[in-house]
Specification:
Layout: H1 2-6, H2 10-24, E1 29-34, H3 41-52, E2 55-58, H4 59-69, H5 72-82, H6 89-99, E3 108-112, H7 118-130, E4 137-142, H8 145-153, E5 155-157, E6 164-166, H9 193-206, H10 208-215, E7 220-224, H11 229-239
Parallel strand pairs: 1-3, 1-4, 2-3, 4-7
Antiparallel strand pairs: 5-6
Helix pairs in contact: 3-11, 4-5, 4-6, 5-6, 6-7
C-alpha cells in the first residue's frame, strides 16, 4: 500500500488522502445486492462502493482469491473443486469472514452473488451476529424478465474492475474499451438468451425466498431497475440514507 502511494502524483496523492479522510466519517454499512443477471448491479455497485467507502465482495472473485492465497478456507475450497464437488456453504461463509477482515472493509461491505439460498442467508447472519453486527440493507433490483435479454446480449465487462457497459444503454466513451483504463472490454460466455433463461429460472426458484427472508426482518428496499441509470442511482441513495 505504501509503495502504491509513493508512486502517485502529488495531485493524486492529495485526492487519495482526502478520500480516506472522508471515509472516516462515513457510517458502517453491510449491504446485499440481489437481482437477476443483467439487472444493473454491475453498473451500480462500483458507485455504491465509492460513495460509502465499502469493499465489494463478489463470491466468485473471493473464492478464486482465497484459493490463490492458500488461506485455510481456500485450501478446503480447492480440495472440493479438484474432486468435482460443490464448494460448501460453510466454506463460502468462511471465505467471506476472512475477506471482511481486510482494511478495505473497515466501513462495511457490499455482498454480490451471495447468499443465493435461505440456508446461506442464515449462515451469513449467524457469522455476522457473532461479531456483533448484521446485514443493514438488502437492495432488491427488480426488472421484468423480458427486458433482460436485450440487456444481457448488449453487455460488455471490464474484467479487472467489474465495470459494466452496454452497447445501447450505457456505452463506453470509445467502443470496446474501458473508460478509465483504456483496456479492452470482454463479453461473458454466458451472456446469451438461452443461458439467461436457465439462470433466471434458477434465480426465481432459489433467490426469491432470500428476499422474503430478509423482508420479514425489515431489511429489503426494492429498486425499480427498469429505469434510467440516474433514476436507479437516486433510488439507491434514498434507500441508503
Amino acid at each position: 500500500m505504501a509503495d502504491a502511494l509513493a508512486e502517485m502524483s502529488t495531485d493524486a496523492l492529495m485526492r487519495e488522502i482526502q478520500r480516506r479522510l472522508d471515509c472516516q466519517s462515513k457510517p458502517d454499512k453491510r449491504l446485499i445486492l440481489v437481482g437477476p443477471p443483467g439487472c444493473g448491479k454491475g453498473t451500480q455497485s462500483p458507485k455504491i462502493k465509492a460513495e460509502h467507502c465499502l469493499c465489494h465482495l463478489a463470491t466468485g472473485d473471493m473464492l478464486r482469491a482465497a484459493v490463490k492465497a492458500g488461506t485455510p478456507n481456500g485450501v478446503r475450497a480447492k480440495t472440493a473443486m479438484e474432486s468435482g464437488a460443490l464448494v460448501s456453504d460453510d466454506i463460502v461463509v468462511g471465505i467471506i469472514e476472512e475477506a471482511i477482515k481486510d482494511v478495505s472493509c473497515r466501513n462495511g461491505f457490499i455482498l454480490d452473488g451471495f447468499p443465493r439460498t435461505v440456508p446461506q442467508a442464515k449462515m451469513l447472519d449467524e457469522m455476522l451476529g457473532k461479531k456483533g453486527v448484521a446485514v443493514d440493507n438488502v437492495l432488491d433490483f427488480q426488472i421484468p424478465d423480458e427486458v433482460l435479454v436485450e440487456r444481457i446480449e448488449g453487455r460488455w465487462i471490464h474484467a479487472a474492475s467489474g465495470r459494466s457497459y452496454h452497447t445501447k444503454f450505457s456505452p463506453p466513451k470509445i467502443a470496446g474499451v474501458d473508460d478509465i483504463t483504456g483496456e479492452p472490454l470482454m463479453k461473458r460466455k454466458d451472456d446469451n438468451a438461452a443461458t439467461l433463461k436457465s439462470r433466471l429460472d434458477a434465480f426465481h426458484a432459489q433467490t426469491q425466498p432470500v428476499i422474503d427472508y430478509y423482508k420479514s426482518r425489515g431489511k429489503v428496499n426494492v429498486i425499480h431497475a427498469n429505469k434510467p441509470s440516474k433514476n436507479v442511482e437516486e433510488q439507491i441513495a434514498s434507500a441508503l440514507k
